[in-house]
From TrEMBL:
Residues 303-325 are annotated as: Disordered. Residues 75-151, 408-478 form the YdbS-like PH domain. The chain crosses the membrane at residues 46-67, 173-195, 215-241, 355-374, 380-399. This is YdbS-like PH domain-containing protein. Keywords: Membrane, Transmembrane, Transmembrane helix. It comes from the Bacteria.
Length: 492
């Protein structure tokens, strides 16, 4: 009886030291420009400014080179037919191990510097929702591709269908995201933060007020809003181009997905088709107005945020904001089932609950706006404007939310839709649904409604559908199998 030889421990690519140092130098230099400008405006001499900025950049770059050299020296990895391991030996020793048979998602990413140097970072994730993850940064590009092919060898297929390729015209949908005004506010906040570092906020506010101080306050407010939208639009377009340039989404014969995207940081991600549980269509108001949608995958090992170890999960993003037919068509091919276009509406009581909440919001906002008007009577218009604005927004959001609320059950999938500003339609394969949690608040009991939460081994693991009619609930919970038939009687 012979045993397989133990593979030797391998070193990461030495070029990662130079790549990380170049990136750090660029980031420090970009920070040094506004910092140096602020110091000069603050009256600091040119010699001292050059010393702090250039010296700081050199010192930071040297520190990065030292840290990366140490990391390179203490990190090793090895791959055998059954496991892939990464070992770090510094003051103590730690080993991260993944079964090659459990690797479901492989992402190869390379920033601009790494691409020029021919190296890439490899991120691996297992099939569990919060399962183990392993990062190798960085390997030779060819070695990284060979590793990806080795780990996905059992699932490789020659028959490939191209689902989506980027149309540059889709960039027009980027500003329609709900993140656009937030990007604008963040940009303005960064300007004030930098000014605060150098104690220049009072002077900046004095200069701004000198330019606009004679304008009516409503005009100033509209100007600030317009500025935030302009800054947000530029930022959202830049983020779209960086994340989605050179996009190509392929589907293999075995159902696995292969995604390539990115301008400065190129990403090559593979999703195991056996772990895909469904998809999510995102349609905020701006997208709906333009007939657009964004598509995410619901799969084991991917999601938003971080896992229990503090590591960032692999992104579920599949298709950027694009014509809805593009995202829906990709979803149908991935699921092998038509995407329901008309969903079953929820009872009128669901709409009443949303209108009641809207009225409560209007009352709270108006009462809060009365405070400055009581103290300064010349601000009498503030509660009036708050009442009008909150009424329009809250009532619209309540009615839009009620219109969007719905579900549908077909032979192969279950579609769950909810939300207004963050509207999403979760389309889950019936075979992947593990069960349903049924929740009823006292107010829902009086209204004859219930909240259903579907559980599946993918994405967040829980998909919530609020305010389902009791007569509609059995059709949903029976999608988890006959074991749920005992729930056919509505809960009391």
């Amino acid at each position: 009886m012979t045993t397989e030889p133990t593979p030797e421990w391998l070193q990461l690519d030495p070029r990662t030291v130079a790549a990380s140092t170049v990136v750090a130098t660029g980031a420090l230099a970009a920070t040094a420009v506004p910092a140096g400008s602020g110091l000069l405006l603050g009256g600091v001499g040119l010699a001292w400014v050059l010393l702090w900025t250039i010296g700081g950049t050199i010192l930071g770059a040297a520190a990065t080179a030292v840290i990366e050299t140490v990391r390179l020296a203490v990190t090793r990895y090895r791959v055998d037919p059954h496991r892939i391991e990464r070992r770090v030996r510094f003051l103590s020793s730690s080993t991260t191990s993944l079964s090659t048979g459990r690797v479901r998602n492989v992402e190869i990413s390379a920033d601009l510097v790494q691409r020029r140097m021919g190296i890439a970072t490899v991120r691996l994730a297992s099939g569990e929702t919060d399962g183990a993850r392993l990062t190798l940064g960085a390997l030779d590009r060819e070695v990284a591709e060979d590793l990806r092919r080795h780990l996905l060898a059992e699932r490789a297929a020659t028959d490939t269908i191209e689902l989506v390729r980027l149309d540059p015209g889709w960039v027009r949908y980027a500003p329609a995201s709900v993140m656009t005004p937030l990007f604008g506010i963040l940009g303005i906040g960064i300007v004030f933060q930098v000014a605060d570092w150098f104690g220049a906020v009072p002077e900046m506010l004095e200069w701004i007020w000198g330019q606009i101080g004679e304008l009516p306050i409503p005009v100033i407010a509209m100007g600030v809003l317009l500025l935030a939208l302009v800054v947000g639009t530029v930022a959202s377009v830049a983020v779209f181009v960086e994340n989605w340039w050179n996009l190509r989404l392929d589907r293999h014969e075995d159902g696995s997905l292969e995604l390539r995207r990115g301008l400065l940081v190129g990403r090559h991600t593979s999703f195991d088709g056996r772990r895909v549980r469904g998809v999510t269509l995102h349609e905020p108001p701006g997208f709906r107005l333009l007939g657009a949608a964004r598509l995410d995958v619901v799969a084991s090992g991917v999601g938003t945020g971080k896992d229990d170890d503090g590591k960032k999960k692999q992104s579920p993003a599949l298709v950027p904001p694009s014509p809805r037919d593009v995202s829906a068509g990709a979803a149908e091919t991935i699921l092998g089932e038509p995407v329901p276009t008309v969903l079953r509406a929820h009872p009128p009581a669901a709409r009443r609950r949303r209108l009641v909440r809207a009225v409560a919001v209007i009352v709270v906002v108006t009462v809060a706006a009365l405070v400055p008007a009581v103290i300064w009577t010349w601000l009498w218009w503030v509660p009036v404007a708050a009442l009008a604005l909150s009424a329009v927004v809250a009532i619209w959001a309540a009615l839009d939310n009620a219109r969007g609320l719905g579900h549908e059950v077909t032979v192969g999938v279950v579609a769950l839709r909810k939300g207004s500003l963050m509207r999403r339609t979760d389309i889950l394969g019936r075979e992947g649904i593990l069960g349903w949690n049924i929740r009823r608040s006292p107010l829902q009991r009086r209204a004859g409604l219930a909240t259903l939460v579907g559980t599946t081994a993918g994405g967040s693991g829980a998909f919530r559908l609020p305010d389902v009619g009791l007569g509609q609930a059995p059709e949903l919970w029976r999608t988890a199998g006959p074991v749920w038939d005992h729930l056919a009687e509505p809960p009391g």
